[in-house]
Design a protein that fits this description.
This protein is mostly helical and about 140 residues long. Helix content is about 55%, strand content about 5%. Helix 2 runs antiparallel to helix 3 and helix 3 runs antiparallel to helix 4. The N and C termini lie close together (about 10 Å). The model has no long low-confidence stretch (mean pLDDT about 90).
Length: about 140
């Protein structure tokens, strides 16, 4: 199966931890894609943005966008567009699991002083990579 270059470019950015760039490329694709793939691409955008917020120590934004991405991607089964969706969901859950027990209001946001010293952080080594597979 051949994929849109924007989809593949977004994956490259994501895997290099260039989450803002992944978001931008996928958003361009999302604006042109209709039907079933629309929610899939939106879920990828949410995950990229969640990780972008994580790197900025905005755990409030991380959790909010992680949860939105989970809801969007769950219906896409094990593999969609060559992407192992279930694996990505599992990997993202492992990445953010330490902040999930916290209420949204208790997490540091973008402008929270001392956010780098919040007692719970995401382990950067758990940030997922995306590897496409043959369907």
């Amino acid at each position: 199966m051949s994929f849109d270059e924007r989809y593949l470019k977004g994956i490259e950015h994501f895997n290099r931890r260039e989450f803002y760039d992944a978001h931008e490329v996928w958003e361009d694709l999302w604006n042109h894609e209709l039907g079933e793939p629309h929610g899939f691409i939106q879920g990828l955008i949410q995950f990229a943005t969640a990780l972008h917020h994580f790197e900025a120590h905005n755990l409030k934004g991380t959790k909010l966008l992680y949860e939105a991405g989970m809801e969007l991607l769950k219906p896409y089964g094990d593999v969609y567009w060559g992407l192992p969706v279930r694996k990505l969901l599992t990997d993202m859950a492992a990445c953010v699991e330490k902040i999930l027990p916290y209420k949204q209001a208790d997490l540091p946001g973008r402008y929270h002083p001392g956010k780098e010293n919040f007692p719970v952080q995401i382990d950067p080594s758990l940030i997922p990579k995306i590897k496409l597979i043959q369907e």
